[in-house]
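Lecture notes, continued. The same structure-token format from the folding unit now serves as the input rather than the output. Read the line below as a description of shape only.
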């Protein structure tokens, strides 16, 4: 069973038991987070595709903590003028442990 969820402007394919780094969320380590923007849920049989989201579907995840991504080097340079600036950036992410995918049947 897997699901496609959207958080922080990105889409991720998740399944129970996996760990995932998402854009930084305002949550404490150990807190339970529900991702409700579920775009697709697939298990045995036909996948449930949302328009744009699957009604009643949620992904429950536990916050492990905050991690930093790889360093990105930013180098600015102007030819023939001796202008050089080298800076770096490390994006912060929230690491989630996916616990379960909940798909409730919504009448309608």
């Amino acid at each position: 069973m897997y699901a496609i969820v959207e958080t922080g402007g990105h889409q991720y394919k998740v399944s129970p038991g996996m760990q995932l780094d998402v854009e930084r969320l305002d949550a404490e380590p150990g807190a339970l987070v529900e991702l409700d923007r579920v775009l697709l849920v697939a298990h045995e049989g036909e996948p449930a595709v949302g328009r744009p989201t699957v009604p009643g579907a949620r992904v429950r995840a536990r916050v492990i903590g905050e991690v930093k991504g790889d360093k990105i080097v930013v180098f600015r340079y102007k030819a023939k003028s001796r202008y050089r600036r080298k800076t770096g950036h490390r994006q912060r992410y929230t690491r989630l442990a996916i616990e379960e995918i909940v798909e409730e049947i919504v009448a309608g």
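Point for the exam: The beta strands are 2-7, 10-14, 19-23, 32-35, 38-42, 48-49, 57-78, 83-103.
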